[in-house]
Every structure is written in structure tokens, then in C-alpha cells.
Write a structure and sequence with these properties.
CATH topology: Amino acid/polyamine transporter I
Number of domains: 1
Radius of gyration: 21 Å
Strand content: under 5%
Order of helices and strands: HHHHHHHHHHHHHHHHHH
Largest sheet: none
Helix content: over 70%
Low-confidence stretches: none
Distance between the termini: 35 Å
């Protein structure tokens, strides 16, 4: 029975594809124009800055992941480092934000379809499609990890192909003159770098989802740290190449384009390029929906397995799928998706993610003392330096955000407090 269960789990390359799928979504098809608008050609440097920040956070996740082989990720690390209450806060926010993100991506999928088939761009049809998407993904995940793994692998490869073709073909169509001036209008505007850094950081979020599902992976303490780092390297190189090619083809016009990659590919490959990117957009958003539907329930499972969510939430079926957590996540995601408040929720989710990132970076420092003798398959070189840099730069990014977004973004931490005490009383009873 154990052997069968191990076979059902995700291997190294399936973990890598899940990570790529969880990061690369709809944003990359739209980000090049926004980045160009703020920073011009220098936006390439902002991608590199964000990649370095994400890498510094990622290695913190990787070191923490090497100490644990169970579901939960940031929740498990925060609980082990700072106690049950902080762990609960992080876990609650993680699950809440993932359900919001899942709902938002489902709506993004329907919106993209509405752009291709205008007749479907009505509230009723959108709600029907959203329902079909979320329910279908829930049923797929209830059927077990094996099917989810296969679908994720296929979708990830399928959505990367149009982007890869764009980079390979577009590279030979680059006009070097399009890279001047360095900044929009030839002048740098104060605050533009920070605004661009916050904007583009969103494109990298999602990597933390991998560690949440550690319990469904083979040898997570060995495979997970390596997979996380490889995913970030692949995504970073991909993003930079996409930005370089987009600027090289469209030049300053890139900032005014509403569908930059689609327009750029159409310019060099005609209707074929336009259609391929349009299909890639649908597949990409659909792919991140697949990844999200797999990862989201695992946040609830982790908390249930540790006794701070009702035990029923962690219940699994014969296929080893956490069907109760899947149904709860799908139901709440569906209610959020029907609410129509997605844009605001998506912005808030970016801020809220730092409730996972900062505690994890701090946990690395704590574990260097409390778990100094424990074997790690990955250890950050340079002692405290990288975790401290990750924390300080993360705080700097948060300072750039509107106060209202900060309040809403971390509002889930306040909401979690009464739920924590209810669970504590229930556990004592």
C-alpha cells in the first residue's frame, strides 16, 4: 500500500512543472507593456531586481523545506519557529489568499474566453463558465494526485510552447534602435522604479505554493529545495527574454499596447502568431487554475493535520486525495468568484503574500539556533546575510504600497484571531 501511495506522488520534474505552472499565468501576457510604461527599456533591470529578491526569499523557503516533509509550507515553518498562534495566523492567511487567487484566476479565464467569443461576455455566461471550471477542477483533484499530475504536466508544457516560439522567432526580428531611450521620454521619474518593482513582483508570486504540497511529493526534503531554485531560474530567464524581445520588436509602442506579446508576435508572424498567443493566453490561465486547484486545499489539510482546523478538513479518500479540503476550497472560491470583487482582491493578495514570505525568512534565522544539528539537504551560504536582505527589501516594497491596500492585505491576520481562539476552545473540549 505504501509503494502504491509513493507511486501516486509527484516526482522531481512534475514538481518543477507544477512550480512553473503556478507562477506563469495571465500576467506575463500583459506585464511587458506596464513595465515599459513605467521604466522604459530599464524595465529589464527591474525584472532582474525582482528576480534577485524572489531568489533570496526562495532560498529561505528551500532551506526550511529541507527540514520538513509534510504539507503546509509557510504555516509549518512559522509554527515551528514562533509557536502555534503565529503559525495559525500564517496558515489562515495562506489558505484564504489561495482561495481568493483561485477565484480570481477562474474569472480571468472566463474574461479571456469572452475576449475571443464576444457572445460569452455576459454576467450569466461568465458565472456558468466559472462554475464549470471550479467544479471540474475540484472533481479532477478528488480523483487523485495521479490525474492532477498528468493534467498539470500537459498544460504547463502546452502554455510554454507559444512563449518559447515567440522568444526563438522574435529574437531574430529585434531592432537594436528600439532600446533607446533608456527611460520613457528619456528621463527617469522619481518613484518609477519602486512602482515597477511592486508591479512586476506579482509575476513571480506563486512559487511558495510548491512547499504547501510537500506531503504529496516523493522525497520532498531532497527534491523540493532543488525544484524551487530551478523553477525560479527558468521563470526569470523566460521573463527577461520575453521583455527583451517585446521591446526589440515594438520599441516605445510597447507601452501603449493592450496585448503586447500577441501584438509583437503578430507583427512578425501574422495571424499565425496572433492566434497562437491568444491560444497560449487561454492555456496559460487554465494552467494556473489547475495548479491553484491542486495547491489551495493543501493549506487547509496542513492545519487540520496539526489540530488547528477541524480534523474532517484533512480527511482523504481511497485515492489519497483530501476531498473535504478540496470541496471546502472549491465552494468558498466559487462564492468569491460570483461576488464580482476580483480586481481588488487580486491586488490585496499580493500584499498578503508577504505574511508568508517574511515569517519564513525569519524562521531560517531561528532554525539556525533551534535546529542547528538537524541535517539539511540545502543550506543558504553566507549565514544570515541573504535572509536579512530578503526581509529588508520585502519591507521596503511594502512601504511603497498604499495604506488602504496594506490594511486590506493584512486584514486576514485580524480575522484569523477569533477563529484561532474558537479552535483552541474546541480542542480543549
Amino acid at each position: 500500500m505504501h509503494i502504491e501511495t509513493e507511486k501516486q506522488k509527484m516526482g522531481f520534474w512534475s514538481i518543477v512543472l507544477l512550480g512553473i505552472n503556478g507562477i506563469i499565468g495571465s500576467g506575463i501576457f500583459l506585464l511587458p507593456n506596464q513595465a515599459m510604461k513605467l521604466m522604459g527599456t530599464a524595465s529589464i533591470g527591474v525584472f532582474i531586481f525582482d528576480a534577485l529578491l524572489v531568489t533570496s526569499i526562495t532560498v529561505c523557503f528551500a532551506e526550511c523545506a529541507s527540514l520538513f516533509e509534510v504539507n503546509g509550507g509557510p504555516y509549518i515553518y512559522a509554527k515551528a519557529a514562533f509557536g502555534e498562534f503565529v503559525g495559525y495566523e500564517v496558515g489562515f492567511v495562506t489558505w484564504a489568499i489561495r482561495m481568493i487567487a483561485e477565484a480570481t484566476m477562474a474569472v480571468a479565464f472566463t474574461t479571456a474566453l469572452g475576449g475571443i467569443v464576444p457572445g460569452w461576455n455576459t454576467p450569466l455566461i461568465k458565472n456558468i463558465i466559472v462554475t464549470v471550471v471550479i467544479v471540474s477542477l475540484a472533481l479532477m483533484n478528488i480523483s487523485g494526485v495521479t490525474l492532477s499530475k498528468i493534467v498539470n504536466n500537459i498544460v504547463t508544457i502546452a502554455k510554454l510552447l507559444p512563449l518559447l516560439l515567440f522568444v526563438l522567432i522574435g529574437f531574430f526580428a529585434i531592432n537594436g534602435n528600439n532600446f533607446t531611450p533608456l527611460f520613457p521620454g528619456g528621463t527617469y521619474h522619481s518613484g518609477a522604479f519602486a512602482a515597477a518593482a511592486v508591479l512586476l513582483f506579482y509575476a513571480f508570486t506563486g512559487f511558495e505554493g510548491l512547499v504547501v504540497a510537500a506531503g504529496d511529493m516523493r522525497k520532498p526534503e531532497k527534491n523540493l529545495p532543488r525544484a524551487i531554485l530551478l523553477v525560479i531560474v527558468i521563470v526569470t530567464v523566460f521573463y527577461i527574454l520575453l521583455q527583451v524581445v517585446s521591446i526589440g520588436i515594438l520599441g516605445q509602442h510597447l507601452s501603449a499596447s493592450t496585448a503586447p506579446i500577441q501584438e509583437a508576435f503578430g507583427k512578425i508572424a501574422g495571424n499565425f502568431g496572433t492566434s497562437l498567443v491568444a491560444a497560449g493566453t487561454i492555456i496559460s490561465i487554465g494552467g494556473i487554475c489547475v495548479a491553484s486547484s491542486f495547491i489551495t486545499p493543501r493549506s487547509g489539510v496542513a492545519m487540520a493535520e496539526n489540530g488547528i482546523m477541524p480534523a474532517i478538513v484533512g480527511r482523504r479518500n481511497k485515492k489519497n486525495a483530501p476531498y473535504v479540503a478540496i470541496l471546502v476550497s472549491a465552494t468558498i472560491s466559487l462564492l468569491i468568484a460570483w461576488s464580482g470583487t476580483f480586481e481588488t482582491l487580486a491586488q490585496i493578495s499580493v500584499v498578503s503574500r508577504f505574511a508568508q514570505y517574511i515569517p519564513t525568512c525569519l524562521a531560517v534565522i531561528v532554525f539556525r539556533y533551534t535546529r542547528a544539528q538537524e541535517l539539511r539537504t540545502f543550506k543558504i551560504p553566507g549565514g544570515w546575510l541573504i535572509p536579512i536582505i530578503a526581509i529588508l527589501v520585502s519591507v521596503w516594497l511594502l512601504i511603497q504600497v498604499d495604506v488602504s491596500q496594506l490594511l486590506f492585505g493584512f486584514g486576514a491576520l485580524v480575522i484569523a484571531v477569533p477563529f484561532y481562539w474558537i479552535m483552541k476552545k474546541h480542542a480543549k473540549a
